[in-house]
Specification:
Layout lengths: L1 H15 L4 H8 L3 H4 L4 H7 L2 H14 L3 H6 L2 H11 L3 H16 L6 H21 L3 H15 L1 H35 L4 E8 L2 H11 L10 E7 L2 H14 L3
Antiparallel strand pairs: 1-2
Helix pairs in contact: 1-2, 1-8, 2-5, 2-8, 4-5, 5-8, 7-9, 8-9, 8-10, 9-10, 10-11, 11-12, 11-13
Length: about 240
């Protein structure tokens, strides 16, 4: 059971991402070369070369020496991972693997939690972002930040929640006003909604720019999603008419 629970969870994440069946099989087999007596040739014989290559690619990432992770900056290590993967699906399986590891991080000891969380924040969350997988990137950041810096996480989470109550009504009014203006101008749009910065991105900005929480000015934004690219500029003009840029 200990050997199958994790691979099945990884395969489920890949299925939710609507990956092809070979990628899902490789997800199920991703630890086989590392953890069993079966090798590349066994996987190729039972399945095929494509699946064997994906599992082999994942094994190579796992075997990258820990020394190189410390010596290289996270950015360089990320470039190494991307350069060595000829099949993008290898990276997707690796992200699914890391996501399930993060979701079950409570089973690790304190030292492992710190190391895995830091590695996730430095390497795997940026990798997800780079591949356009923002939901996975967000979840990795959220769990990583909460585990690595619990006090900072709780403090910022509380600060965001307290100002959210103050701004909710204002954001609703602005959103409704923009929607009304778009309807008046017959602009076809998908939605107009507010978004708030996530806790980890607030923390990164505070750290990078040496700002206090009260100095963060882009905590909230209104996003208008329109049907045509050209309408972006029209909508920008409408919003500038409503509010001084």
């Amino acid at each position: 059971e200990a050997f199958i629970t994790h691979p099945v969870a990884v395969a489920n994440i890949l299925a939710e991402l609507k990956m092809d069946y070979k990628c899902i099989i490789a997800g199920l087999l991703h630890d086989v070369i590392e953890d069993t007596d079966n090798d590349y040739n066994d996987i190729e014989r039972v399945f095929d070369k494509e699946i064997a290559n994906m599992v082999d690619g994942l094994t190579k990432i796992e075997r990258m020496p820990a020394k190189s992770r410390k010596e290289n900056q996270a950015e360089n290590f990320l470039k190494m991972i991307m350069a060595m993967c000829s099949d993008i699906r290898v990276l997707l399986i690796k992200l699914a693997d890391r996501l399930h590891n993060m979701r079950t991080l409570e089973h690790a000891n304190e030292e492992q939690k710190r190391r895995i969380s830091q590695e996730t924040l430095d390497i795997y969350a940026p990798l997800a972002r780079r591949l356009g997988m923002n939901e996975i990137g967000l979840e990795l950041e959220e769990i990583g930040f909460k585990t690595r810096y619990p006090l900072r996480y709780r403090t910022l989470k509380h600060a965001v929640a307290s100002i959210e109550k103050k701004h909710r009504m204002t954001l609703e009014k602005i959103t409704q006003r923009i929607e009304a203006a778009l309807n008046e101008s017959n602009i076809a749009y998908e939605y107009v909604r507010s978004r708030k910065k996530h806790v980890y991105s607030i923390y990164q900005k505070m750290k990078r720019k040496k700002l206090s929480f009260n100095e963060i000015t882009d905590m909230y934004a209104i996003r208008a999603c329109v049907k045509k690219t050209a309408d972006c500029y029209t909508v920008l003009g409408i919003i500038h008419g409503l509010y001084r840029p």
